[in-house]
Design a protein that fits this description.
The complex is a heterodimer.
Chain A (H helix, E strand, L loop, with lengths): L8 H15 L4 H7 L38 H5 L43 H18 L3 H14 L4 H13 L3 H14 L4 H17 L3 H14 L4 H18 L1
Chain B lengths: L1 H42 L7 E4 L3 E4 L6 H10 L3 E2 L9 E5 L4 E5 L3 E3 L2 E3 L3 E7 L2 E7 L5 E2 L1 E4 L3 E5 L4 E3 L10 H11 L11 H14 L9 H10 L6 H17 L2 H11 L1 E5 L2 E4 L1 H9 L8 H10 L12 H17 L5 H8 L16 H11 L5 H6 L3 E4 L3 H21 L12 E9 L4 E6 L24 H11 L12 E4 L4 E3 L2 E3 L10 E4 H6 L3 H11 L1 H11 L20 H12 L3 E3 L4 E5 L5 E4 L4 E3 L3 H16 L5 H4 L7 E6 L5 E7 L4 E8 L9 H4 L1 H12 L13 E7 L4 E2 L8 E6 L19 E3 L1
Parallel strand pairs in B: 1-16, 3-4, 13-15
Antiparallel strand pairs in B: 1-12, 2-11, 4-5, 5-8, 6-7, 8-9, 9-10, 14-15, 16-24, 17-18, 17-29, 19-22, 20-21, 23-26, 24-25, 27-28, 28-29, 30-31, 30-32, 30-33
Helix pairs in contact in B: 1-6, 3-9, 3-10, 5-6, 5-7, 9-10, 10-11, 14-23, 15-17, 15-18, 15-20, 18-19
Chain lengths: ~250, ~775
């Protein structure tokens, strides 16, 4: 369902989350937040403790984006890789967001939780290295994360999470085209995992936005939310785009 | 009478004056020149630091199978020494398969941006499988671990001097005192030459009737090492003495000492000379200078006199004797206490496998040099001490070299016509091995003998691919339906009979091997049996431009003519291009860029360059899976079925390649994790007279059997949207219980046949859907 009102959809998402939370006997807002990653780096060093408990997917801290002219990839590379890139200024029609008609999916971001007694040694080792790479990325060490994550696909080329985090690392390094390529591979290896497919689409949106392809970015965010209305990256990004759009129209 | 006398005297005096002044002028000029020489060395670049090329690191993780013999060989190549007791020092290991135990005390290694401090590690084994890894000191459980990369070779100009420069402040005082005690105990008293030492040495030499002791100071030794030869000539000694005096006048004692400690030669590892005390400490003890014990310091100081004769690796007795002499001297000089002396005397000597570092992979290294030359000059590569980390797996490299050499020898033995008299016309071959997921070049052998020919056939030889090109035709056909063209599936029936293809006013008539035609065959059968006529018909229906575009999309970079004969491989490509293109199939439609150099790090550990894995999805995983499924049939029923008889049984896809004129024989084959391309032929394009199955497949099979032994067996996993049904290969329709031969065939969902076999009517067998 399309909507022209941009003030209502986040509230609708929250309302749905509230109802689901209430049905399960807990307050929705804390529950929603509980599924989100902590933004503070872990206390341990970059070296992963091998038996560390699984932790959820973590997004980079967000800051309000300035509006600016069309961004080129090479311009973005010169910036801090952690800083989320700004969207292209646009005077196009208001953003169309998807109806958040699905409840947020349960958090499936823990990679170590995917290791079960039936997991092959290759997949288990690959998942553990992916987790190490993810943590390195979390503490901002993208180069080290990259070398860890490249090993994950050597050990197990079917590990989609390795490809996803490689995509994320390239995104952090400002290599958006490479990131998009890895996302394509991750997507082709993820089936029946809407939580992760939503992550893929959301990150794709981030890359498109960084490349100044706002329409494609919106479509990707929308796809992410269709798969998982609780996807924070897509929600936040669409919120920002909406804010910009409103500012322009005012 | 007086006049002539006076005249003679005056002539003499004038001559004397001229000679003396000339001597003074010349002497002054000469001294000035020597001074400039000394200054240039001290103040300029003193040493060249060769770049070092490393293999990829080796990852060990819980659940992986170990191949004990190969692991032991690798550990030995890395300088580890097998011990019968639990490893106590870096560089020791103990392997006890009967007790399910492997223990390694890991070396330190400076990985790019990640220095690694060695620690003892214990692997629990069940059979050959690692079941647990733990840090032996802390008991911490680990899940994976890297064995450091192997040094492949150095890039140097004339001599490989391995050295790391340290400042005097970084050298523990005991080392300095020990070296001075045995080499130049009056170092801080003399001014470059030491008359007391000279007199003493002369006296000793006269008494012994030969040269047994030198009177050279440490400064003189440094001057000799910097500028002069080892000749025992008076003129050389004079020059050395003058230069020592100049150096002492111009520079401080500490500056001279620091240069000396970095300059001295202290051992040899193959072609690699060990220079300077830091490098020696690593070579002999695998530890930094600050961690050396008193005994180790004494051993090191004792080595200065004759590093090879007194080496603890070559002559433990002589080394022990010399160490004890040094320890005694240190005790006499009250540098160490008696307790330290006695403890040091009990220390055991270091042991290490003396593996010669020679260039084991010259073709691969040439390829690396070529890649590096794009960004680094030869001067930089041979002088700046870069560390170059590569994708090479030295074990696979050695296997590839052995498989090629032995395979070619066997071919010559089996087919005497292949033997040539002249070395230039020898039968040649090449192998390239890729990891499809990453594009890493794991091994590369560009020819039979690098000594005889440095021409690297992997990337320099453009040869006709022959039938190895056919999969691109079949791939284009499978994709054709989705792009508005004629639809093909693995069960599509194709005509295999003589025909003429008219194009651009010309006529082309493809013929089958031995002019044998099969009438109507399935798409699969045409590919498995590499039928020229059926393939050409498919190419005609699909369009040759589409075939060419697919080949380019998969990674073929050479120019390909869009002519009908391209369908049968009438173009020229390199084995490297073939490997990249087929690795795209092996990697489920994701193309990777070939990766040899992974990272370049400068001498300070700073990253100069990092080449990442790059991927691009160029095919849908479904189409890639169907192609792999088809090419698996080449092993099971097609032209490569001999590989099964020769013992290669794991799931694999591949294709033989033979050119029409039998000049080139190819085989490309891959498991989901490893791909290898083999080419065999003559450089002068003489007729080989053998097919790919006869000449290249045996080499490929031998290599892959070695390379995959003990590794997990993996198969190509069907992605969602693939349906596997059982069909009768004669009709290409759903098999019934009455069909005598049934084949499980993969289709895009919705493309599978829906009617039962008309040749053997009955109810269809079960169908399965993979999703």
């Amino acid at each position: 369902m399309k909507t022209n009102s941009f003030t209502g959809w986040p509230f609708r998402i929250l309302a749905i989350a509230w109802i689901i939370g209430a049905m399960q006997g807990c307050a929705p807002l804390p529950r929603y937040r509980a599924s989100l990653p902590s933004t503070s780096p872990p206390a341990s060093s970059a070296k992963v403790s091998p038996d560390a408990p699984p932790s959820p997917v973590q997004e980079p801290p967000r800051t309000p984006l300035p509006q600016e002219a069309k961004i080129k990839e090479q311009d973005l590379k010169a910036r801090s890789p952690i800083t989320p890139p700004a969207a292209k200024e646009t005077t196009k029609p208001p953003i169309v967001t998807p109806e958040a008609n699905t409840a947020p999916l349960p958090d499936d971001s823990s990679l170590l939780a995917k290791i079960t007694p039936g997991t092959s040694p290759q997949r288990a080792a690959s998942l553990r290295l992916t987790e190490e790479g993810r943590k390195l990325l979390e503490v901002g060490d993208a180069p080290k994360a990259l070398s860890r994550l490249e090993k994950t696909i050597v050990i197990d080329s079917t590990n989609p999470y390795g490809y996803f985090y490689l995509a994320k690392t390239h995104y952090r390094l400002g290599r958006y085209k490479e990131s998009l390529s890895f996302l394509e591979v991750a997507e082709s290896r993820l089936s029946g995992e809407p939580f992760w497919l939503a992550e893929v689409h959301a990150l794709r949106g981030e890359n498109f936005r960084a490349l100044g392809m706002v329409d494609k970015a919106e479509a990707s965010y929308a796809q992410a939310l269709r798969l998982n209305s609780g996807n924070r990256t897509a929600n936040d990004a669409l919120g920002r785009l909406q804010g910009q759009s409103q500012a322009i129209s005012r | 009478m007086k006049r002539p006398k006076l005249r003679i005297i005056s002539i003499f005096l004038v001559s004397l004056l001229i000679v003396t002044s000339s001597g003074l002028v010349f002497g002054g000029w000469y001294l000035r020149r020597l001074e400039e020489t000394v200054a240039a060395k001290f103040d300029g670049q003193k040493w060249r630091f060769p770049s070092k090329i490393y293999s990829d690191s080796h990852l060990l993780y819980v659940g992986i199978n170990l191949r004990f013999q190969e692991l032991s060989e690798k550990l030995r190549r890395l300088g580890y020494h097998e011990s019968q007791s639990p490893p106590k020092a870096r560089g020791e290991y103990r392997l006890q398969p009967s007790r399910g135990l492997l223990e390694i005390y890991l070396h330190d290694f400076s990985y790019p941006a990640e220095p690694f401090k060695g620690f003892p590690v214990r692997f629990s084994l069940q059979g050959t499988t690692i079941t647990r890894i733990e840090n032996s000191t802390t008991g911490e459980e680990l899940f994976s671990l890297e064995l450091e990369p192997e040094l492949i070779t150095g890039l140097y100009e004339r001599v490989w001097e391995e050295r790391r420069v340290v400042s005097l402040a970084e050298v523990p005082p005991l080392i300095v005192k020990a070296i001075l005690a045995v080499e130049d105990e009056r170092f801080y008293q003399h001014h470059g030459i030491d008359p007391v030492s000279i007199v003493r040495a002369t006296w000793v030499n006269l008494r012994s009737g030969g040269v047994v002791q030198g009177g050279s100071t440490l400064t003189q030794q440094l001057m000799k090492n910097f500028f002069l030869s080892d000749e025992r000539k008076f003129s050389r000694k004079m020059k050395e003495a003058i230069m020592a005096l100049i150096a002492e006048r111009k520079y401080t004692k500490d500056q001279i000492l620091e240069n000396y400690l970095n300059e001295i030669y202290l051992g040899q590892r193959g072609s690699q000379g060990i220079f300077g005390i830091w490098e020696a400490s690593q070579f002999y003890f695998s530890k930094p200078l600050s961690e050396l014990t008193v005994g180790e310091v004494a051993l090191l100081a004792g080595l200065v006199r004759a590093p090879n004769r007194l080496s603890p690796y070559r002559s433990p007795d002589a080394a022990t004797k010399r160490r004890n002499v040094v320890l005694a001297k240190l005790l006499d000089d009250k540098v160490i206490t008696r307790k330290q002396y006695e403890s040091a005397m009990r220390e055991s000597l270091p042991r290490r496998e003396l593996i010669k570092v020679t260039n084991d992979a010259p073709y691969y290294v040439d390829y690396l040099r070529r890649e590096l030359a794009e960004n680094y000059s030869n001067d930089v590569l041979t002088a700046e001490g870069l560390r170059i980390f590569t994708s090479m797996d030295l074990l696979l490299q050695k296997m590839a070299e052995r498989s090629l050499a032995e395979g070619l020898k066997k071919l010559e033995a089996s087919y005497p016509a292949l033997r040539r008299q002249g070395e230039e016309d020898n039968l040649e071959g090449a192998i390239i091995v890729l990891r499809p997921q990453t594009g890493e070049i794991k091994a590369m052998v560009g020819g039979r003998s690098y000594q005889k020919s440095q021409f690297n056939r992997v990337f320099q030889a453009k040869r006709q691919p022959g039938s190895i090109f056919k999969p691109f035709v079949y791939l284009a056909a499978l994709m054709s339906g989705g792009e508005g063209g004629k639809k093909f599936t693995p069960a599509t029936m194709v005509e295999d009979s003589p025909f003429k293809w008219n194009y651009d006013g010309q006529e082309w008539e493809p013929g089958n091997y031995n002019d044998e035609y099969f009438g109507t065959v399935t798409f699969r059968r045409a590919l498995e049996k590499s039928l020229n006529s059926a393939t050409a018909r498919i190419a005609r229906d699909v369009g040759i431009k589409r075939v060419r575009d697919i080949a380019h999309r998969l990674g073929v970079q050479s120019s390909l003519p869009a002519v009908p004969s391209l369908a049968l491989g009438a173009a020229e490509v390199t084995p490297l291009e073939v490997a990249v293109a087929f690795s795209t199939l092996a990697n489920n439609g994701v193309r990777t860029r070939p990766l040899a150099v992974k990272q370049v790090v400068d001498s300070d550990g700073g990253a100069r360059e990092k080449r990442d894995v790059r991927v691009e999805k160029v095919l849908t995983p479904q189409i890639a899976f169907i192609m792999n499924h088809l090419l698996k049939g080449v092993f099971d029923r097609g032209t490569a079925d001999a590989a099964r008889r020769w013992g290669f049984t794991r799931p694999a896809a591949g294709k033989t390649g033979t050119t029409n004129d039998y000049k080139d024989a190819w085989f490309v084959g891959y498991t989901p994790d490893l791909l290898a391309v083999v080419w065999v032929g003559f450089d002068n394009k003489a007729k080989l007279g053998l097919s790919g199955a006869q000449a290249a497949l045996p080499i490929w099979t031998e290599f892959m059997k070695l390379a995959t032994a003990g590794t997990p067996i993996t198969d190509f996993a069907p992605p969602p949207g693939i349906k596997i049904v059982e069909i009768d290969p004669l009709s290409g329709q759903l098999a019934t219980p009455n069909c005598s031969y049934v084949l499980r065939e993969a289709f895009l969902e919705g493309d599978e046949p829906t009617t039962t076999c008309p040749l053997h009517p009955g109810t269809p067998l079960q169908a399965s859907k993979f999703d």
